[in-house]
């Protein structure tokens, strides 16, 4: 029996590989983006309570209605944007599922999708499964800004969607007001849709506002805005997110969603409804992670790594150009095996594996974990 792969070039993700390598060699895992500290006790209590009270069967396909209402309230307060919880919000099994479903909803064979790289690894496989055509624009490698002139040159009659991500994984950069205004100009009067990956919306530093597409009416009417509870509440393993889109887009999204996962873990949805009442937990998240960023950066100044600017997310990029001329993938593996710290090489986020001698560290860790990691990094 022969099986012709739909994704012949896809291998196990670098995150799985590096986490496995870290486990094998007993290294400190700063590769995969997950916290090593516990979520808020009230979140755990709320989920346990929901299960004990019998909320163990299917949730509504669109999501638990009280949660959707609470999300609509939060969006109104955060972005001054009104959305209908009945028709314009859907709860998803994490942000990756939301992105995948949005791409399946929008993209037909031979239609083009513009990707801005380095790009999160789930985008491209979804486009290929739709038999779409990816078009790549590279962020400026100096400051990771978007060269909008190049984006404009790629737009054609076949362009169906543009994917954006801010705060940006893996670089830690953020989109500014001028970026969203430029995107608004490029798409105005076209049939181009936007998928906006905003999972780190609250992990943004130095008093910056998060520039969501929902702040811009002309973008909002053509966009799927995607968010993650896992990133906000330190429970990446629960895999719950949500998507906001106009009713006409959401109708089509739900057609795919109902046959993709149908519905999402009900006790977790009830728990997120309860925890959203504690507004300070997401409102103060940026400050919480900014302290970790600053703490980690201060420690790293004792190493030979060159630090890159971090405006959001819980990732720190570093250059090892003054240390080694090895490929970033080789250096990352050697770091894990010989020095006991596992990073992610940046080249895996590029379609052509561009190597700028950059590594990504996750600092969503206890301070003691970060201290132990830097004790090892100093030896390099």
From TrEMBL:
Q: What InterPro entries is this protein classified in? A: Aminotransferase_I/II_large, Kynurenine-oxoglutarate_AT, PyrdxlP-dep_Trfase, PyrdxlP-dep_Trfase_major, PyrdxlP-dep_Trfase_small
- Look up keyword Transferase and say if it applies: yes
Q: Which species does the entry assign this protein to?
A: Raineya orbicola
Q: Needs which cofactor?
A: pyridoxal 5'-phosphate
Q: Does the keyword NADP apply?
A: no
What superkingdom heads the lineage? Bacteria
What is the name listed in the Swiss-Prot or TrEMBL entry for this protein? Aspartate/tyrosine/aromatic aminotransferase
Cellular component GO terms, alphabetical: cytoplasm
């Amino acid at each position: 029996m022969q099986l012709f792969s739909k994704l012949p070039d896809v291998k196990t993700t670098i995150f799985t590989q590096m986490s496995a390598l870290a486990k094998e060699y007993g290294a400190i895992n700063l590769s995969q983006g997950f916290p090593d500290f516990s979520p808020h006790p009230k979140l755990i209590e709320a989920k346990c309570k929901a299960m004990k009270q019998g909320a163990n069967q299917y949730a509504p396909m669109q999501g638990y209605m009280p949660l959707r209402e609470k999300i609509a309230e939060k969006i109104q307060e955060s972005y001054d944007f009104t959305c209908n919880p009945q028709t314009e919000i859907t709860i998803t099994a994490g942000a990756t599922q939301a992105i995948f479903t949005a791409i399946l909803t929008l993209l037909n064979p031979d239609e083009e999708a513009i990707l801005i790289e380095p790009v999160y690894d789930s985008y491209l496989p979804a486009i290929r499964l739709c038999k779409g055509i990816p078009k790549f624009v590279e962020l400026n490698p100096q400051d990771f800004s978007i060269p909008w002139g190049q984006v404009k040159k790629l737009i054609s009659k076949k362009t169906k969607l543009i994917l954006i991500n801010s705060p940006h994984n893996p670089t830690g950069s953020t989109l500014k007001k001028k970026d969203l205004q430029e995107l608004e100009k490029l798409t105005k009067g076209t049939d181009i849709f936007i998928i906006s990956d905003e999972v780190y919306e609250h992990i943004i530093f130095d008093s910056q506002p998060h520039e969501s597409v929902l702040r811009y009416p002309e973008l909002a009417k053509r966009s799927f805005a995607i968010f993650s509870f896992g990133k906000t509440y330190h429970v990446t393993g629960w895999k719950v997110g949500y998507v906001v889109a106009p009713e006409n887009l959401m109708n089509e999204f739900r057609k795919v969603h109902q046959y993709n996962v149908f519905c999402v873990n009900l006790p977790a949805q009830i728990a997120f409804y309860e925890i959203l009442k504690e507004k300070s937990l997401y409102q103060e998240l940026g400050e919480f992670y900014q302290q970790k960023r600053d703490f980690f950066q201060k420690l790293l100044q004792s190493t030979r790594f060159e630090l890159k600017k971090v405006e959001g997310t819980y990732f720190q990029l570093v250059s090892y150009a003054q240390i080694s001329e090895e490929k970033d993938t080789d250096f990352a593996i050697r770091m894990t095996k010989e020095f006991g710290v596992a990073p992610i090489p940046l080249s895996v986020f590029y379609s052509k594996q561009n190597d700028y001698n950059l590594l990504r560290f996750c600092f969503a860790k206890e301070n003691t974990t970060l201290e132990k990691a830097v004790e090892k990094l100093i030896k390099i």
